[in-house]
Amino acid sequence: MSTTQPHWTIGDTTITRIDEVELPPETGPWLLPHATKDVVGRLPWLRPAFADADHTIRLASHTFAVRVGGMLVLVDTGIGNGKDRANPAWHNLDTDYPARLTAAGFRPEDVDLVILTHLHTDHVGWNTRREAGEWVPTFPNARYLTHRTEWDYWASVAMDEPRLRMFRDSVHPVHESGLLDLLDVPAGGLEVASGVLLVPTPGHTPGQVAVRIESGGERAVITGDSIHHPVQLAHPHLTSCVDIEPDQAKRNRHHLLDSIADTGTLLLGTHFPEPTAGTVHRDGDAHRLVGVAPSTNRD
User: Fold this and answer.
1) CA dist list (Å): 281 to 8, 126, 217, 237, 286
2) Which of 56, 75, 206, 210: CA 20 to 30 A from 118?
3) In whole angstroms, what is the distance from residue 131 CA to residue 158 CA?
4) Is-contact 65 112, C-beta < 8 A?
């Protein structure tokens, strides 16, 4: 592997963060409306990494590229470039995400698996790219994986036009190309590559999964949107404005945090700003995150 991208090593597995865009300050109050400045201000460990000096939480969009054995696995695909989106922060982006992905050793044609933790707009955008006026799979040789429950849910509900547009440009082309695999994920998890397991964490969406990575006696968990921000470690009851089943999301967040607290497990947040990863520690009746800085050495 050759990379100067931020990465962490779990046993023999390398997890690289592929940055897309830092989200604007207004994202936090919209997404987690009960994470008020007063709540954030009472948690000094959130600053300066996870919150600004004025107690506004910081959020980012990135994906994780996992090199495990001889396989290249991408976890979520972000917002994407050149897409018509209702959210101004996501609309018609033009980032250098593809160059960063290639710099990490993940040429699109070499990716083996794309794990979609759920089918929200900011997790599926780079599923496709525009070619000759059409949206085509960005990773033509990969299998795209998502929980069957997730697919079935969105197939059964009436979607508004912005979400329909997202499915048309970022999800349906992958399905129509025969690259999308719908998986039944049991409560104990489903291994999709050596030491890479999908673990159901529903609530944000019915088929939301986290990704557990185990290698050489070490473990990491990629959150997807089961946890949006480290403030939810101290206050797991804080729900997102777009959680479909908020009470279920709370229960699964509690369970996830309790299962990894004080174990040395690396928690990597799909929307956590730098340093993005850390270990979870019990803090009275709650938890806090102790950041673990990535390496950027060229290996």
Assistant:
1) 19, 34, 19, 17, 9
2) 56
3) 29
4) no
pLDDT, tens digit (0-9, with 9 covering 90-100), for 92-116: 999 999 999 999 999 999 999 999 9
Q: Which two tokens stand for residue 155?
A: 């197939």
d(CA 165, CA 146): 19
Q: How far is CA 232 from the centre of its chain?
A: 15
Find where tokens 């939810």 sit. Answer: 232
For the stretch 43-53, what's the b/e string if a residue is b when 16 or more beta carbons lie within 10 angstroms of its beta carbon? bebbeebbbee
pTM score above 0.90: yes
The gap between the terminal CA atoms of the chain, to the nearest Å, is 6
Confidence band of 91 (pLDDT split at 50, 70, 90): very high
Max Cα distance, the chain (Å): 57
CATH superfamily to which 7-291 belongs: Ribonuclease Z/Hydroxyacylglutathione hydrolase-like (3.60.15.10)
Residue 68 has pLDDT above 60, yes or no: yes
pLDDT in tens, 223-238: 999 999 999 999 999 9
DSSP 47-106: TTTTB-TTS-B--EEEEEEEEETTEEEEE---S-SS---SSTTTTT----HHHHHHHTT-
